[in-house]
Amino acid sequence: MQLPLASMSPLRYPGSKRKMVPAIRQLIDANEPPPELFVEPFCGGASVSLGLLAQDAVERVLLADLDPLVAAFWYEVTTKGEALVKDMRKLEVTVDEWDRWRKMRPRSSRSKALKCLFLNRTTFSGIIGGRAGPIGGRAQESEYTIDCRFNKDAIAERILNVHRLAKEGRIVDVLSSRWQGTLDHAGWYAAEYNPKATIFYLDPPYIEKADRLYELAFDEFDHRQLAEHLRGTTHRWILSYDAEPLVLRCYRGLGDIHEYRVVHHYTMTGARSSPVPGREVLFTNLPNDPTRRERTAL
């Protein structure tokens, strides 16, 4: 099923990776075999997985996130999309409701999914668990009010599009787990296909301002633990990060790991190229360098 890339994810995230899809696809297309399974352990808005599915660049994806609200949202979208849309349409988008959802400690998967969606679509920068307030402020005197990102028809269309992908078997599972558990669990699925045709895409929480952006942020130990695992694994993987010194120390200069800068308009350059604007970087153990081929305009 071909879907428009710009209208895939029902969620909006700070630093959305949607525009990185062309660069990541360059890496995928340059390396055989093509992925039968694409695993995203820090899925968040899942823009990369959904974008690659929309382009038929990957056969199927597995989504996972440690945040129970995010994991519940994707579980409800993939398994009970029509019912989720029906409940979403009943939501009142007001500051009072924002306060209510913010304080709520939901128990059911549906309530967690609705809290995730409501706060993501009504909070500054889509931040669910950080310190941000409602769009438009408490007085709602801004040009942009709390409901400006809550177009129910558009959200419903996106939820149902993703639900159809799941019904077609393109989204094989949704996990609520740490990245270690996701990698272990995904190994069971990979064994059903060609294990060499599985790619893990990891987009860990930002380092800069992490405490303001995430309820469950990574600390330095977490970043180093992830780096140690990736340096030793035989699985194929792609990692995206903000180009912070800690990240560069963990991955730069290792023989089997390649580094690519991603510029603001999201083309990819080799790490030894002249400096370019932007602070995002891709690391991968995929061996073939797409930047040595004839460049494709992205």
TrEMBL record:
<dbReference type="GO" id="GO:0009307">
    <property type="term" value="P:DNA restriction-modification system"/>
</dbReference>
<dbReference type="Pfam" id="PF02086">
    <property type="entry name" value="MethyltransfD12"/>
</dbReference>
<dbReference type="GO" id="GO:0032259">
    <property type="term" value="P:methylation"/>
</dbReference>
<keyword id="KW-0808">Transferase</keyword>
<dbReference type="InterPro" id="IPR029063">
    <property type="entry name" value="SAM-dependent_MTases_sf"/>
</dbReference>
<dbReference type="InterPro" id="IPR012327">
    <property type="entry name" value="MeTrfase_D12"/>
</dbReference>
<dbReference type="InterPro" id="IPR012263">
    <property type="entry name" value="M_m6A_EcoRV"/>
</dbReference>
<comment type="similarity">
    <text>Belongs to the N(4)/N(6)-methyltransferase family.</text>
</comment>
<dbReference type="GO" id="GO:0043565">
    <property type="term" value="F:sequence-specific DNA binding"/>
</dbReference>
<dbReference type="GO" id="GO:0009007">
    <property type="term" value="F:site-specific DNA-methyltransferase (adenine-specific) activity"/>
</dbReference>
<dbReference type="GO" id="GO:1904047">
    <property type="term" value="F:S-adenosyl-L-methionine binding"/>
</dbReference>
<feature type="region of interest" description="Disordered">
    <location>
        <begin position="279"/>
        <end position="298"/>
    </location>
</feature>
<keyword id="KW-0949">S-adenosyl-L-methionine</keyword>
<dbReference type="InterPro" id="IPR023095">
    <property type="entry name" value="Ade_MeTrfase_dom_2"/>
</dbReference>
<dbReference type="GO" id="GO:0006298">
    <property type="term" value="P:mismatch repair"/>
</dbReference>
<protein>
    <recommendedName>
        <fullName>site-specific DNA-methyltransferase (adenine-specific)</fullName>
        <ecNumber>2.1.1.72</ecNumber>
    </recommendedName>
</protein>
<keyword id="KW-0489">Methyltransferase</keyword>
